[in-house]
Amino acid sequence: MFADRAKIYIRSGKGGDGHVSFRRELFVPDGGPDGGDGGNGGDVIFEVDEGLNTLTDYRHKRKYAAQDGQEGGKRNCHGKSGESIVLKVPEGTVIKDAESGKVIADMSGENRRQIILKGGRGGIGNQHFATSTMQAPKYAKPGQPCQELEVMLELKVIADVGLVGFPNVGKSTLLSRVTNAQPKIANYHFTTLSPNLGVVDLDGDGFVIADIPGLIEGASEGVGLGLDFLRHIERTKVIIHMVDAASVEGRDPIADIHAINKELNAYNPEIAARPQVIAANKIDAIWDKENDPVEKIRKEFEPEGIKVFPISAVTGQGLKELMYHVKGLLDTMDHKPVVFEQEFFPEDMFVRENLPYTVEKSTEEENTYVVEGPRIEKMLGYTNLESEKGFAFFQRFLKDTGILEELEAAGIQEGDTVRMYGLSFTYYK
């Protein structure tokens, strides 16, 4: 089974907590603080592996986590940093936020390795909080939390040209004739169950062509296999429509082209607007020379600027002209590969040092002001307010962050109450 899509959960490592300890040695009964810093948590890194061509590995294992940093120790011992986890993916893999569908990273082009989630920084030990007036601080900073995210991995093949058409029109045969690819070929529908890539060599210069598995009507809405493979055409610059000009199975080639264009437009209008070429295949099976179906296709589409090439994938007739025309179209276009721009930035979800807070006057209690937000909640989580020195440390935090200024701007007076989650205290200058 060709796996080109997988949803996984990833988590970076938590930073190790800073340590609280004091130097205790013979003849040094009142040594200073010597708590060490915690280690940094490991990162989650994605890396391109040239030897991979599917996302099969991520179908069997869904959760990936980097190591947490170790807590700091006594005697200024620094905790060990957690190891990062490196996830190998095939080139062309697009990493998206599973909830919003926005692109986090496109592992193609020059982007071979990218950190997706950063590990938390280790907290600092109590030795860093010692001052001339506070020589025995009994608190340390905890490590920063981990980052976690559910992501969708989508493999979008990297090819210059996309070969599309209904099942059994001869796409695999064409690919085998013009490239070094060896796709499975048989006379039944849906022989191709995964995109096949091949390189067309034209006098030392060429391009990559992808055989996109057979589309059917309703593919853009998830009918059949179409939706599973439409994503593989997103990077292509030119589209070759292949039709059965001889109507061997009774299909109308003109109706087929309109149907596929409808599906492309429904999936992504930008793709449908790209340059197109029509390969009218199986001309070796046309017996009615008076009613030439190729001429009917030309009258329908060449006025729109879409060139029609009569070909026979079996005998090779017309293939050279078709390939050189496609190469000419590519030569007029930007040679840079199609790369999806980043739309989702995980670091914005995990702002650490500048967490928000709000300062508001209570509408329910008189002379009361409410201060809330992740930054306050985090600070309360690692400060011992029952300690006189811990409370003094918290007061400095309120001053340094500008919260006291905002309270005064909001009109607070001496004797008013300040409420922060479960904590209440009276305000005095």
UniProtKB/TrEMBL annotation:
Family matches, as CDD domains: Obg
Protein EC: 3.6.5.-
Binding site for GTP: 165-172, 190-194, 211-214, 281-284, 312-314
Domain of life: Bacteria
One Gene Ontology molecular-function label: GTP binding
Cellular compartment(s): Cytoplasm
This protein's record includes keyword GTP-binding: yes
InterPro entries documented for this protein: G_OBG (IPR031167), GTP-bd (IPR006073), GTP-bd_Obg/CgtA (IPR014100), GTP-bd_prot_GTP1/OBG_C_sf (IPR036346), GTP1-OBG_CS (IPR006074), GTP1_OBG_dom (IPR006169), GTP1_OBG_dom_sf (IPR036726), OBG_GTPase (IPR045086)
UniProt cofactor(s): Mg(2+)
GO CC, alphabetical: cytoplasm
One GO term of the biological process aspect: ribosome biogenesis
Pfam family, one: GTP1_OBG
HAMAP family assigned to the protein according to its UniProt record, in alphabetical order: GTPase_Obg
UniProt subunit comment: Monomer.
Similarity comment: family membership: Belongs to the TRAFAC class OBG-HflX-like GTPase superfamily. OBG GTPase family.
Entries under NCBIfam families matching the protein: Obg_CgtA, Obg_CgtA_exten, PRK12296.1, PRK12297.1, PRK12299.1
Name the record gives this protein: GTPase Obg
Annotated source species: Hominiventricola filiformis
Gene: obgE
